[in-house]
């Protein structure tokens, strides 16, 4: 995940770097480094960042691409039919 996207998520959520730092238990300096691609974000913090900002779907599309997300959504519509069939 690129820092520029994470910064966009944070700004869209109207959060300061300090507020994000508190929300994901990192220092404000770490938030700045992550957003400037000077530090790699760990998976737990990435998930928390997207949850706090409400950008889980956008992050998934950036990470996996829109095609994968569309296919996963389609497969979820098939789950009830598979349960009935079994």
From TrEMBL:
Coiled coil: none annotated. It holds the Pfam family HTH_3. This is Helix-turn-helix transcriptional regulator. It comes from Lysinibacillus louembei. Transmembrane segments: none annotated. SUPFAM superfamilies: lambda repressor-like DNA-binding domains (SSF47413). It comes from the Bacteria. Residues 6-60 form the HTH cro/C1-type domain. InterPro entries: Cro/C1-type_HTH, Lambda_DNA-bd_dom_sf.
């Amino acid at each position: 995940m690129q820092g520029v996207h994470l910064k966009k998520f944070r700004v869209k959520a109207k959060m300061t770097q300090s507020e994000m730092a508190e929300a994901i238990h990192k220092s404000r300096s770490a938030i700045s480094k992550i957003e400037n691609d000077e530090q790699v974000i760990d998976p737990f913090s990435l998930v928390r960042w997207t949850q706090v900002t409400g950008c889980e779907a956008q992050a998934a599309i950036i990470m996996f691409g829109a095609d994968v997300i569309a296919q996963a959504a389609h497969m979820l519509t098939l789950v009830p039919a598979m349960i009935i069939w079994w």
